[in-house]
Amino acid sequence: xxxxxxxxxxxxxxxxxxxxxxxxxxxxxxxxxxxxxxxxxxxxxxxxxxxxxxxxxxxxxxxxxxxxxxxxxxxxxxxxxxxxxxxxxxxxxxxxxxxxxxxxxxxxxxxxxxxxxxxxxxxxxxxxxxxxxxxxxxxxxxxxxxxxxxxxxxxxxxxxxxxxxxxxxxxxxxxxxxxxxxxxxxxxxxxxxxxxxxxxxxxxxxxxxxxxxxxxx
Length: 217
Prior knowledge:
Elements: E1 14-18, E2 25-30, E3 38-43, E4 65-75, H1 77-81, H2 85-90, H3 93-100, H4 107-118, E5 131-135, E6 141-156, E7 162-173, H5 176-179, H6 184-202
Antiparallel strand pairs: 1-2, 1-5, 3-4, 4-7, 5-6, 6-7
């Protein structure tokens, strides 16, 4: 069935994995369905942190710690009805694995670490993961770290492949405090912040009358 010709093109949210050093795009993961809600929390750094210190009362020591919670759904029904070969063979395993492997070191890195440990190496560097960018429209492209990934599989085919699932993503926005100014992630954060400042200037200002006041006493 063709869509109504006047319907807008649907923009999907998702994750883009980039090389943290070069900014080269390594993988794009688009959400099948956009979530109905997106929860964000900002923990302020510094303001009022030291009780009784009048000099520090209004100082901001850096960007707030922003966290994002996203609940998404994945469903293989349409692909199964279209007799998609990969879906018939593996269900939603590939889509779920694409998300899960973001938070795993690669098997090659684990094997290399094991070899180094066996040869007596005293210092083994943790794996350098790709930098995830959370993309939710053109006004929200922000570097993040995945802090939580929860998957609820709700339906299965005859071979016990998942065919419907809910994914919960916990994300922590990475600022210049985390990444610095001289890498792709830092510049993307600055663009994100500057976009907020531009949008804030577009918001209509209030008036004392709306607050029931003639002015500040």
